[in-house]
Amino acid sequence: MAGSALVVGAGVGGLATAIGLRRAGWQVSILERRTEVERYGTAFGIHPTAQAALDRLGVGEKFLARAVPYRTARIRTPEGKALAALPLERIERKAGRPEMLISRPYLLDILLAELDALGDVTVTFGRQVTDVEALAAEHDLVVGADGIRSVVRAARFGAGSAPRGIGTVAWIGIADIETHVHGETWGEGRFFGMTPVEPGRTNWYAAVPEAATADELRGYFTGWHEPIPRILAETDPSTWIRYEMRHLYPALPTFVDQEKVALVGDAAHAMTPNLGQGACTAILDAEALTRAIAAYGVTRLGSALRAYDAERRRSAQRVAFGSRNLHRFMATRRTWLRDSLLRLLPA
Predict the structure, then answer these.
(1) For the chain, first and last CA: distance in Å?
(2) So where does this one cross the membrane (predicted)?
(3) Considering its fold, how many domains does the chain have in total?
(4) Which has the closest alpha carbon to 298: 89, 104, 109, 28?
């Protein structure tokens, strides 16, 4: 017997969850507070484990058709001296496939197209959820995929875990400049990253203690190695996105509630972006949750949710913890110690 599920949130985690549930034969509807899908063009790094989850969800080939491999990257000083290599080659040797990068709009389009092909999934935009209890009474399952400020989490898990700032502002964007200088440049209390995203374009991100305007951001990277100043000088600031880096603290004791509600993605374990694992963990959550539900069925939904929590919670929270600690290490002002430790790694 199939069940009825409501997914709150139409981001990567919510759409992937809806695909998995629909493939399991469930009736699925999605509510999204925004009036349309957010299509800003940052790049997601997708680890081989998350790629395998996309395979199991039935969208792996479509993902590979739009993604680009990420094989070589370095950590550098502001002067451009390489300190260490990111472990991309080791990841590829171990997994048998490389880390991949994909533009966020492309991934969302792939997931939306798959939902459309599966059929019978209702996506309602511009709907702000206010009464989670009423929704839970109407459906067998409610999935909170509504981000770091999750309404579902607040309603069913309390306010003990909440977004917490870390005193750093991030800026992200896509430059119409292609460069082969990929990786991250670490300075004193700030860093700048560049990755491929598609031919002729470069995904970039920057983190600084504070910068309210584009000119202030540029000032933090004056004199840094090329192409960092060029990217900031030649790209349109109106396309840049600024946000305060936050994480969910303290960690939740469970991702599920009363055999009725489950959290995925940032709603469950929002993390700083330093490890580049936010989209990966959301995909892994969605696939693990829907795989467990398919295995147990609606009559044993409680067992399915507990199996999901056992598989994903500690793993996702370890990634979140590691990402937060990496941020502390990257953003330290004791650069001599940090750089000395980095030089011990293969360059």
Answers:
(1) 56
(2) none
(3) 1
(4) 28
